[in-house]
């Protein structure tokens, strides 16, 4: 029997309810590299935009001994993030709140770093990036882990990429159009950032890392079996994960397209 609660759920709320801890390319290796590029260490104040269930935010707070604030537009995700922080006994160093990335509820110059992972691509980039810079202290860093495409993409590959983007938006409800790296860098400059650096995310995370993030092998198996069960009985969920799988195939595996699509870490400094 279909679980009616899943029918109209937001995509990320659905993934969170399934127990998926994070969604970005490169896993926690990419998160740690982004933290390094943003010069995060003890005593720093960090804002994580689009924190989801708080896995990266809690990881950063715990590993780098800094203070972290995570925001997300979803009340359900923020509640799960708070529960994660409490379970890890780090609520004194990481806090979560519901907020819109386009209108951050913080004073100017309050953070040493602003980080997002597979979030800004869904936003109004110029508006969101200006907000990231506004809440940064002078010398602070903005760091994103996002998708991009090459400047010159053959027509047949461009058509496949466009179809994957449109299919994702159709079933998930989030607009996604892959910018070029030059476009990303232009948005960073227009938002007032300097010393802009980028690195390719040419690595993935393995099953062992993911199992650890989920809570262990038993929880991973439980998640897998429950996801299969849900896809059998929930047609919308089957459609969503089917289309997301097609998008990943186009972006990561398809011989015609994968060489023109990638993920990168992009970091800029507020003067």
Account of the 3D structure:
- The chain is an alpha/beta fold.
- It has a single domain, classed as Rossmann fold (3-Layer(aba) Sandwich).
- The protein is 45% helix and 20% strand.
- The chain has ten helices and seven strands.
- It has helices at 11-18, 27-37, 55-64, 75-87, 125-134, 155-172, 181-190, 207-214, 217-233, 235-252; strands at 45-49, 67-72, 94-98, 111-117, 136-149, 194-200, 261-269.
- Strands 3-2-1-4-5-7-6 form a seven-stranded mixed sheet.
- Helix 5 (125-134) links the parallel strand 4 and strand 5 (136-149).
- It starts with 10 loop residues before the first helix and ends with a strand.
- Residues 1-8 have low confidence and may be disordered.
Summarize the structure.
The protein is α/β, with parallel strands linked by helices and 271 residues long. The chain has helices spanning 11-18, 27-37, 55-64, 75-87, 125-134, 155-172, 181-190, 207-214, 217-233, 235-252, and strands at 45-49, 67-72, 94-98, 111-117, 136-149, 194-200, 261-269.
Q: What is the strand and helix layout of this fold?
A:
Layout: H1 11-18, H2 27-37, E1 45-49, H3 55-64, E2 67-72, H4 75-87, E3 94-98, E4 111-117, H5 125-134, E5 136-149, H6 155-172, H7 181-190, E6 194-200, H8 207-214, H9 217-233, H10 235-252, E7 261-269
Parallel strand pairs: 1-2, 1-4, 2-3, 4-5
Antiparallel strand pairs: 5-7, 6-7
């Amino acid at each position: 029997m279909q679980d009616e609660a899943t029918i109209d759920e937001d995509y990320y709320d659905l993934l969170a309810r399934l127990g998926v801890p994070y969604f970005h390319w490169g896993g926690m290796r990419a998160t740690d590299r982004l933290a390094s590029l943003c010069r995060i260490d003890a005593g720093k104040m960090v804002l994580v935009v689009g924190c989801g269930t708080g896995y990266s935010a809690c990881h950063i707070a715990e590993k780098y001994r800094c203070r972290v604030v995570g925001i997300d537009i979803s009340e359900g995700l923020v509640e799960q993030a708070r529960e994660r922080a409490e379970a890890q006994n780090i609520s004194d160093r990481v806090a979560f709140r519901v907020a819109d990335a386009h209108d951050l509820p913080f004073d100017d110059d309050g953070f040493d770093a602003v980080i997002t992972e597979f979030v800004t691509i869904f936003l109004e980039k110029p508006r969101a990036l200006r907000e990231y810079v506004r809440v940064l202290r002078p010398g602070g860093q903005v760091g994103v882990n996002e998708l991009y495409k090459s400047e010159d993409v053959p027509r047949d590959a461009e058509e496949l990429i466009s179809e994957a983007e449109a299919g994702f938006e159709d079933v998930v409800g989030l607009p996604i159009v892959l910018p070029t790296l030059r476009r990303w860098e232009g948005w960073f400059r227009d938002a007032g950032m300097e010393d802009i650096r980028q690195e390719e995310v040419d690595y993935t995370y393995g099953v062992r890392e993911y199992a650890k993030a989920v809570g262990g092998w038993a929880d991973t198996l439980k998640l897998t079996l429950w996801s299969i069960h849900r896809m059998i009985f929930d047609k919308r969920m089957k459609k969503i994960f089917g289309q997301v799988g097609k998008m990943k195939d186009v972006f990561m595996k398809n011989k015609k397209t994968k060489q023109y699509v990638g993920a990168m870490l992009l970091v800029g400094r507020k003067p």
